[in-house]
Amino acid sequence: MSGTQSYQLSDYLEKLPATTFRKLYQQPSTAFAIFRRMLPPLAKVFVQALLYMPSPLLLSQLDDVWVKSEGRQQRDRALAILRSLHIVQITPSGKDKPQEMQLTTNFKNSMRLALEGGGSHLSFGVPSALPVDPSIDIPFLDKYSRKKWEDILHYVVNSVSVYGDIGGGGSSGGSAAGPRPSVKDLLLAGHLVERRPDSKSGIVITQAGFTFLLQESNAQVWTLLLLWLEASDHAKGAANGGRGGAMMDSIDMLSFLFMLASLELGRAYDTESLTETRRNMLPDLVDFGLIFVPRENPRQYFPTRLATTLTSSASALRSVSAGFAAATANASGDAASLGAVAGANSAAAAESKGSIIVETNYRIYAYTSSPLQIAVLALFTQLNMRFAGMVTGRLTRDSIRRAISYGITADQIISYLAAHAHEQMSRTAAATGRPILPPTVVDQIRLWQLENERMRTTAGYLFRDFESPAEFAALTAYAEEIGVLVWKNEKKNLFFVSKYEQLRDYLKSRKK
Amino acid sequence: MPRATGGILIECEPAIKSIIVHLDSVSHDIIIEDLDEQHLLVRPNMVHLLKQKLEERLKETYRPEEPLADSDG
Fold first, then answer.
1. What phi and psi, each to the nearest 5 degrees, are found at residue B37?
2. Do A180 and A298 reside in the same domain of the chain?
3. Cβ atoms within 10 A of the Cβ of A464, count?
4. What is the pLDDT of residues A352-387, one digit of tens each?
5. What are the DSSP calls for A421-466, one per residue?
């Protein structure tokens, strides 16, 4: 919807060239991780069908066997994703020969290896043979990674210094240090926060930063990792063959991340067996809290939950609100609550108990003592009072306008309030059949935004100069099918799309 | 062969669009293509500046009231 960039793994992967994919798919763990994380169910069915097929499959056969006639759109999306990730090849349509599809060679071989085992690829990590310190167990790793990650979140949230006394009260985990300078630079480079000399702390959150805060933690980790990959790509370009040791190969980096995702939580792995590129990544990964390296024994590394859940399905992960719950529990020193993070289910249960009450008179009551959540609320609320375990405030035109001036959208605010509504609000809403948030408040937030945001922006590409009306019609139809069409005008023969890569390929295949 | 031009698509009311067109008329460095009465293609690096200028222009003419005066806060 908006013109700002979002860092998602799928966007990053789609921009990579085919040669990069060929190299990536040499690693069974990478092929398997992409299969697990990136594909919708129907695309997975296709891959499984094709995996052991000795010869290419006719595209028409695919439709006969696996696709219902009403599932045409899903089939097109699935195929579009498989092609953009270079998992399948489809021969161009010609009059003399029907279209055929097959898996790309490297993907097929690696996927088979991943399923059957075997090979000497060391793709799924090498366990350390050295004795392991018994104090490094799963609860320890969870606590460690949570602290590291919350330091980063706190840094982003604390960049909002509107209510220094209420909101920016520092971090609860007793961490004075915050994230490392390299992590701070990364957040700045990724425009999650921006330098603004007029604010108290010198930096402020951006729309991307707010989106980042509201993502579930798995998406947050990927956002940061992709920023990191990009930053090291830039560094490589800038230094241009300088000190070879410091230059990291982004393909190997990405493979390593996928490998981390396949490791077992609580086990020690051997750093000696890693390539130099990967060993150079370790300090940064320690800063992000993805791995733990014992000080006495730097030849071992332990993946944390942040790393091992990188490629699992999103629903299995704790979200930022569960993080709030954990942060609160942590602050109160409740040892038993450490388990709240270990079990994603119980964390989800904690999340479903929201804490915010919104009244029709724009008053807000939040039953929380988490500095993180209070700071997020302070982004768009005029907070008035803070009690033990509760804050009160009001949504005002100025508070919403200020939030919007940071680049936060009305929809983000509304969905945040709805997602964190107190269970009493949900109960009343269910009983009376009304929406959770008071409609007057929701409408007013949108109106306040309209005052400010008089235009909607979308980044993308304008297509023009078509050879025939038929070509225009075919291209717009295809763009609509794959979900990138934003605007079109038949009279002027113009259309606008959010991405062009697949349209370019489509054009090429038509030309043949 | 069709051509593709990168840029930011702006969707807005005709009134706002006419202000943008006016802003552009000074140095012609904002708009790439005037698409129709509610759409414009603009240079990506100008969007931030455009928003600022638009905000300034609207401030001169438009001042809505707070919907509800607060008694106690």
1. -70, -15
2. yes
3. 15
4. 457 899 999 999 999 988 777 787 888 889 999 888
5. BBHHHHHHHHHHT--SS-HHHHHHHHHHHHHH--EEEEEEEEEE--
Q: Considering CB atoms only, which of B2, B16, B66 is closest to A463?
A: B2
**Backbone phi, psi, residue A417, to 5°:** -60, -40
| Closest CA–CA distance from residue B56 to any residue of chain A (Å) | 11
Q: Is residue A340 part of a domain?
A: no
- As a CATH number, domain B8-60 is 3.30.70.1220
ipTM reported for the complex surpasses 0.90: no
B contacts of A359 (beta carbons < 8 Å): none
Asked if residue A366 is part of any domain, the answer here is yes
Helix (H) or strand (E) holding B15: helix B14-27
- The kind and range of the H/E element at A356 are strand A356-358
**Do A170 and A33 reside in the same domain of the chain?**
no
In order, the DSSP letters of A43-74 are HHHHHHHHHT-SSPEEHHHHHHHH--GGGHHH
Instruction: Answer yes or no: do A388 and A296 share one domain.
Output: no
Please state, in angstroms and rounded to a whole number, the distance separating the CA atoms of residues A239 and A226: 20
d(CA A410, CA A446): 6
Residue A276 makes CB contacts below 8 A (sequence gap 6+) with A245
Q: What is the 3-state secondary structure (H, E, C) of A378-390?
A: HCCCEEEEEECCE
The CATH number of residue A488's host domain is 3.30.70.2610
Give the distance from residue A217's alpha carbon to the nearest chain B alpha carbon, in angstroms: 30
Q: Which domain holds residue A506?
A: 461-511
Highest mean pLDDT among A165-174, A350-359, B1-10: B1-10
**What value does the mean pLDDT of chain A take?**
77
Q: Do A142 and A109 belong to one domain?
A: no
Identify all chain B residues contacting A456, using CB atoms and an 8 Å cutoff: 10-12
Query: Same structural domain for residues A497 and A442?
Result: no
Q: In this complex, how many residue pairs, one in chain A and one in chain B, have their CB atoms less than 8 Å apart?
A: 96
- How many domains is chain A built from? 4
Locus of tokens 């050295």: A130
Question: Do A392 and A502 fall within a single domain?
Answer: no
Contacts of A511 in chain B (CB under 8 A): 1
Nearest-CA distance from B46 to chain A in Å?
12
Same domain assignment for residues A171 and A41? no
Q: How far apart are CA A320 and CA A419, in angstroms?
A: 11
**A464 and B73: CB-CB below 8 Å?**
no
Per-residue H/E/C for A72-111: HHHHHHHHHHHHHCCCEEECCCCCCCCCEEEECHHHHHHH
- A225 part of a folded domain: yes
Q: pLDDT digits over A275-313, tens only?
A: 888 888 888 889 888 889 888 888 888 988 888 888 765
**CB distance A451–B64 less than 8 Å?**
yes
In terms of CA atoms, which chain A residue is nearest residue B68?
A361
Residues A91-106 have a mean pLDDT of: 80
Q: How far off is chain B from A265, nearest CA to CA, in Å?
A: 44
Do residues A29 and A262 make contact, with C-beta atoms less than 8 angstroms apart?
A: yes
Asked if residue A181 and residue A298 are part of one domain, the reply reads yes
Residue A48 falls inside a structural domain? yes
Query: B44, A458: Cβ pair inside 8 Å?
Result: no
Tally of CB atoms within 10 A around A44: 15
